[in-house]
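Quick one - inputs below.
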Amino acid sequence: MLHNYEELVDAAQKISKNQKRLIRVAVAGGHDQAALQALARAQELEIAQPILVGQQEQIEASLQTISANLSDKMTIEPVVHENEIAPRTMRLIRERQAETVMKGKIKTAILLKSVLDKVSGLRTGQLISDVVVVEHPKENRFLLISDGGVNIAPDLMQKVQIIENAVLVAHALGIAVPKVAVLSAIELVNPHLSSTTDAAIITQMNHRGQIANCLIDGPLAFDNAISIEAAQEKGIQSPVAGIADILICPNIESASIFAKSLTFLADLPLAHTCMGAKVPVLIPSRADNAHAKLLSLALSVVVSNYLNG
Amino acid sequence: MLHNYEELVDAAQKISKNQKRLIRVAVAGGHDQAALQALARAQELEIAQPILVGQQEQIEASLQTISANLSDKMTIEPVVHENEIAPRTMRLIRERQAETVMKGKIKTAILLKSVLDKVSGLRTGQLISDVVVVEHPKENRFLLISDGGVNIAPDLMQKVQIIENAVLVAHALGIAVPKVAVLSAIELVNPHLSSTTDAAIITQMNHRGQIANCLIDGPLAFDNAISIEAAQEKGIQSPVAGIADILICPNIESASIFAKSLTFLADLPLAHTCMGAKVPVLIPSRADNAHAKLLSLALSVVVSNYLNG
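Output:
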């Protein structure tokens, strides 16, 4: 089981070492300078090998911003027109020339449209959702948070898929039976607050085996999801309360505000990747610095290896 | 202007000193041991004087849990039946025998029902909402967060009142023109995400003078509300972005998860009080420890003094 970012980066390095070649990242819009910084570092650490998809001249110009020694080793997958970038990136995955996708300089909507294309995309039938992995600031373990990136106001069955995607990431990190807290503002069911009723339904679906390979409990307020003392004070009997691995937020705002506050108020970098397609799709936020992007690359490598394993 | 909890406690002490008597807190259900711990400390620091409303025997039994020296100085307002506690607490305020209300051992719903009673309550016509005041972990100033306590899914006009209540608290803290960020997951208007459209409307209402004595901007994502660099990277021109004093969350879950994560992951105690009634109504959460309750008492004193001033 991986407990922290150091172990995550180690694990990504080991995967590449065992396979005797680096995991290949197809970068849609390879001339993105912020992405190149993180990719150069990932290559240097032998975590991943970038394949830069885009217009040759633009990419070559951007490559001059990083050390020549590293840029020499990067592969360019040239396209003539900008609108070929996303489809070509998909083709690299389908033809097994790359194992994971990273968004470079391309609009998220355009990249996701290609990912979801029924003929040429990477659809699995599963919802696409973003999963954040952050070091617990007080314990040597990870917390997973979803979905602050893709789904605006997920309904019941979309929440189930958001959970399934997060559970896959937890499994990839070696958490055999992740504990999933379905969060609301309170731990009691309130018929006027759909985040509490959805959480109760989802918990019972888990009890009936309709959501497998994890332990789910909800509704839980943040304090009783994360603190054993807080859960005990409220008299909550639960295998999840106080020790949750995965925190499922009821809507995109609560996940986004929560995760970003960890970065901007508590200085915790976030690793994250989109799940639900055939391979992890890394869509960095502008809020992610180079270190956070590197951690997201390591996460994608570990998840990609788990999905293929 | 008050910048941190130390200054807040100092200010509460000075208010009591200037008035030559302590601000009186009517405690509904005065036999609550957790509340008594904080009240004893508030009395010791000369921040506030408790008036314990409840059944005499129960209160006397609870008072034995705190130091005799302090408990001697506490006033008991005895009632015969439990259901008299909330109405009697309201009467103490109406008859100017107390300046602020604190919830002790009584159900929140019962206390709020008395507060909102049209004849005997403390109604002002304004919505009741909870305002959190927390020290910015990286700057010497306060951040205000609302509403994680009372309103489940506020509509547009309820959000306006939530802002007005938070602005009053900011004024009480000496922030003359508070900067208000209306948060969503993104900073662009998305017609499918009502938190962004509400935020845009509220911003324009502020421009038209319909919400006064503050500067409002939204929608803002958390990062561009709190970080000047993040706001600049997105090219946001705004007098609020990056330097917001007040963070208005779009729903109860996002405010609750955000505020509680600050306590449970970043060890930041939260002061908070409900606004919208004639006096501040302090409803401590079970997640608040004695120190947080003391800070909430100091906040209530400062706000009460401002409302009367």
